[in-house]
Amino acid sequence: MASIQCPHCRHEASVPSLDPLLGKNVKCPSCNESFTVSSGSSPEIQAAPPAAMAPPNVHAPRRPTKNPSWLMPLEYDPKAATSAGRYPNLLRYIKIVEFLQKCFFWLAIAAGILYGVFGVFMAVSSLISGEVILAIGILALIVIGGAIYLGTVWLAYISAMAGTEFLRVFIDVENNTRQ
Hints:
Low-confidence stretches: 41-61
Mean pLDDT: 78
Number of domains: 2
Oligomer: single chain
């Protein structure tokens, strides 16, 4: 038995013999891309045929652009060669969640800064009105409360990122066990 590996998605297929397939174009059952089978360890990717010469001032039609991966419909291919092929929805989920975690982290930091600025404004207005003890209390609250708030925000961010990292480790382990 011989095996052929798709150069596009790394899907491996077992064949009785490579001899009848050498030099021929085959289509990968996993990604539907064509490639030429060679006697080496990795098949050659079939080059696209050259485009016909276009007359002057006429442009070749553009290839449609692909949508971002997170906009694609949900899919599942249990026979895909890699975890990215088997669990594309999980990988999309991880990207979206990590983006949202970063957004919420920076929004929380901005809210903490606004809290500090508002507190300083309140402390200054208390000093102007002659209430020194109230101003000192407000400043102490800003320092202690701000440190607790920022520590909690940082801990929540690290915990959330560790959760998505755990999913990536799961995918890596799953990918390595199938090889």
